[in-house]
Amino acid sequence: MAVAGTGGGHGPLTGVRVLELAGIGPGPFAAMLLADLGADVVRVDRPGGTGLAIDPDHDITNRSKRSVVVDLKAGDGPARVLDLAARADVLIEGYRPGVAERLGVGPGDCHARNPALVYGRMTGWGQEGPLAPHAGHDIAYLAPTGTLGMIGTSGGPPVVPANLLGDYAGGSLYLVVGVLAALHHARATGEGQVVDAAIVDGAAHLASMIHGMLAAGGWQDRRGANLLDGGCPFYGTYETADGRYMAVGALEPQFYAEFVRILGIAEQAPGQRDLARWDELRETVAARFKTRTRDEWTALFEGSDACVAPVLSLREAPHHPHLAARGTFTDHGGITQPAPAPRFSATPTSVRGAPARPGAHTADVARDWDVPHLTQHPTKEAD
Known about the structure:
alpha/beta, six-stranded parallel β-sheet, three-stranded antiparallel β-sheet, 13 helices
């Protein structure tokens, strides 16, 4: 049953209860996505917070959630979490393998209280394998998958894609897909299960099409030499007269024809598939883009099918006319932030609450989840 306040709201997951054991990176983002979709997400924060945490008032990954503080090392800490897990549909944790078990809140402990619980585990290396017990971060997880090695210019080093490709694409999104699939199974059978979401698995899986192209001889196993990695002169970025950039993705012949026409190089540009002259084409395109500013080129390409767009900064993006028209960004609590995605015709979503401050919702959660002793003072730390 959905609850009042930030715990309930519109969205396809309204009424689903999610328990998040606080961590950093992909776990919180996955829980945010579930909250965006309408789930009642209760985050169990640690006393003193987590490492690398930002100001709680600006941590958008905690939006639309509620927070309680539980010390899992206190005598009754695990029991408090298990009481919450007994009333949850989903639990998400991002500890190293074995840590949740040592704390007394592992899958076995939770399933003993709630056999239908979907227990989502978010790690970089996964629950098994030689590296499973070791620390790491996004870039180290991407490196051995081959995915990081794909990104960058020919002859240059691999380019770091922030933490978007590993933590969030290869981690959070795969965890959410797994959790929702397991939740569907649990609702049909009453049987919960463990979802082992590893960034190395997800990041490797993201390159499925590339592996197929590699096997077929359509992809070279080196950077900056292929159709989609910047090796192609009509799929990449170019600097403009004001030091900004335009992005070009004119792959199909009709789009390429439109691109060279508007760029003003149709007469001197070599044929699109003349690979031997790609370097010449790249130089011609680069020189032409340098003759106008980014905004001037944006105006020239506006309304065309040339597949050309300006490269905007994070602060510029919300003001792009198309994104503004769609409401891709929203303002909530004084913070401009991406709106929930994707969109639903029957169960629309929205940002339902500001980032949860640690422990701010203990009384509400105790009432709504029927865990009255959650508000009691914890007992002393266990030995």
